[in-house]
């Protein structure tokens, strides 16, 4: 039986939580990354909404990253058994998705590099206060967002918090429960293996081009290959 194929770009972006889930669940998959403009135009023309990621498994073809995450969660038995628990998953997923989308939009604001302190003060700190309270609700220890084991929302949370660790480390450090959670997920053996061996260097795109992970040492000659521009030389950490 063919393994599932996840089609996206050489970015973390909307595919990263899906990749992390596969690694943690030890489910083999084809992590297919489009870097050719003509291929992207072909795929875009057949994608239901002209976007990626696209997830194909047997006769099943899914678009939209959160639909894919919920499908994997159902397949793993995390959803469907308890209505109240499912509601907690939904609430957590919506809150994290909103936070992530807002962070991505900020990278498209003109001169956003000059507005990071304002963004941290007006947007991140209030949002992180709410998220930390939600993680620790009902006097739980905050090890996972729902239940007693990692789930799809934990990997979604990791992606958001890890991007904050890269670009707003001092702000994230003000919220120790969230910072500890990020470190705990990163230290899971299969997640750590992925981070060390197969993870894209680039988080996503912004108004100034690719958002490169500043924590990663980049080897000379490394290029960011993508279907929108010529390959971009990455000469060092930014």
Show the helix and strand layout.
Elements: E1 5-9, H1 16-25, E2 30-34, H2 37-46, E3 54-57, E4 60-63, H3 65-75, H4 83-106, H5 116-135, H6 152-167, H7 169-173, H8 176-186, H9 189-197, E5 202-206, E6 209-212, E7 222-224, E8 232-234
Parallel strand pairs: 1-2
Antiparallel strand pairs: 1-3, 3-4, 5-6, 7-8
Helix pairs in contact: 1-6, 4-5, 4-6, 6-8
Mean pLDDT, to the nearest integer, reads 94
- Could you tell me the CATH topology label of the domain at 83-188: Glutathione S-transferase Yfyf (Class Pi), Chain A, domain 2
Order of helices and strands: EHEHEEHHHHHHHEEEE
- Main sheet strand line-up: 2-1-3-4
How would a crystallographer describe the biggest sheet?
4 strands, mixed
CATH architect. name of the domain at 83-188: Up-down Bundle
Q: What's the N-to-C terminus distance? A: 42 Å
Helix content: 40-55%
Query: In DSSP terms, counting alpha (H) and pi (I) runs of 4 or more, how many helices?
Result: 9
Strand content: 5-15%
Principal-axis shape: globular
Identify the CATH class of the domain at 83-188: Mainly Alpha
Question: Could you walk me through the main structural features you see in this protein, from its secondary elements to its overall organization?
Answer:
Helix content is 49%, strand content 14%. It has 238 residues and is an alpha+beta fold. The chain has a domain at 83-188: Glutathione S-transferase Yfyf (Class Pi), Chain A, domain 2, CATH 1.20.1050.10. Helix 4 runs parallel beside helix 6.
